[in-house]
Specification:
about 130 residues; two-stranded antiparallel ribbon; about 60% helix; globular
Length: about 130
Amino acid sequence: MKYPALLVLMIIIIACAAPPLMAADSSGQFIVGGGVGVLPCTRFLNAMASARQQGGLTSIAGLDTVYPWASYILGFQTAYNFAVPGIRDIFGAFGPSPVNDVLYGIEPWCQKNPTAHFGDALIIFAEKLRKAYE
């Protein structure tokens, strides 16, 4: 009998430790729920600079440095594709592994808006792509 209680406790701990997700509200506006999405662009830019010093985004050390942002992008992609009518794959133009292209695509906007949130940069980037698809 003590094992089912332990299993329930483990599920609760895992669920509470999961990173926050983004979702669109009833008007279609995305809500940044947490994680690296609420961090300022300066944190993202520092991570990109560190990744370059560690061999770039194709190196294991560089990828490890930007992993939180890469994970956020993939979660965002899934939510955006699901929530936005007419969009099958918002980052599809970048091929099956879009993360590096998206990271590089967001970087100039963040450089111009260093105090903005990373999540805002990603939403703006995705909206520009969506308009290009229309």
